[in-house]
Design a protein that fits this description.
Number of helices: 10
Shape: elongated
Order of helices and strands: EEHHHEHHHEHEHHEH
Largest sheet: 2 strands, antiparallel
């Protein structure tokens, strides 16, 4: 994953396409272009000979350049970095700063792509992409672009519940405000705990529980597992914050209704007689 810092100092986490994904997408595009060229030659062969050999050579050369160079450039320009292969693989070509590509980027990619993919039978593109961090080919390097994964599987939501034997303690415990770095580390640990080795999970859970216990009083019952303590602590903080925010919103709604209510209703107009 690559990070891009925008002008507003916002960090964007973008996922460059893998080498395999780019290769499959490029393979689909190449097959489609070859099929279009074959279809054109079949149609041209079925037409009676009405052109002299020189004109036929010019028509063939123009058609080849149109299918293998002009068509990819036009498609990427109009679709802002898409093609049929990229659409199938869920990819898009973007600038190095994450913005949409323009005609000049597609032109450089298209001209060099003809050399990389067809004149060298894909060997140049294969070698350059294989040893590049973002799987860039030569055209991407000169154009300042790379392929981005658009279809990313969203991470599963973190569902936590306080263990039953810790619920009495959690309801009475005084939980202070955890430092933001510690709260983030606990959240990351709880999301990744199922994928960690048992020894690493136990060691990290004990370390985080020791740090978090300084902000909780009284401590959990003896014998409480560190990961259970962290789950109960996170779930209880979530529930308390939800109740606090809900109460604050209700108070704000009641105050808004009072502020926007008319001073007098139709039946309570003052008597002017």
């Amino acid at each position: 994953m690559s990070s891009i810092i925008t002008g507003e100092a916002v960090i964007l986490e973008l996922r460059p396409a893998s080498f395999a994904g780019r290769a499959l997408g490029a393979g689909i595009d190449v097959v489609v272009q070859i099929l279009l060229a074959l279809a054109f030659f079949i149609v041209l062969g079925a037409v009676p000979d009405v052109l002299d050999p020189a004109a036929a050579k010019v028509l063939i050369l123009t058609s080849v350049l149109s299918i293998f160079v002009a068509l990819p450039i036009a498609v990427e320009t109009l679709s802002r970095g898409k093609s049929l292969g990229k659409l199938v693989m869920g990819l898009r070509v973007v600038r190095d700063d994450g913005g949409a590509i323009r005609f000049r980027h597609a032109l450089i990619r298209g001209l060099l792509g003809f050399f990389e993919l067809y004149l060298t039978f894909g060997s140049v593109a294969f070698l350059v992409s294989l040893f590049n961090e973002r799987s860039k080919r030569l055209g991407d390097m000169l154009a300042g672009t790379y392929s981005l994964r658009e279809r990313v599987v969203p991470a599963a939501g973190l569902i936590l519940n306080t263990p039953a034997y810790l619920q009495p303690w959690a309801q009475l415990a005084d939980i202070g405000r955890l430092p933001d770095p510690l709260a983030r580390r606990i959240s990351v640990f709880l999301r990744q705990a199922s994928r960690m080795s048992p020894a690493s999970r136990i060691q990290l859970a004990a370390s985080l529980a020791t740090e978090a216990s300084a902000f909780v009083s009284p401590p959990p019952p003896p014998g409480t597992l560190p990961d259970a303590f962290l789950a109960a602590l996170t779930a209880e903080r979530r529930d308390r914050d939800l109740r606090r925010f809900s109460a604050s919103r209700d108070r704000s709604d009641r105050l808004a209704r009072r502020l926007y209510r008319l001073p007098f209703s139709q039946d309570e107009q003052p008597d002017r007689d």
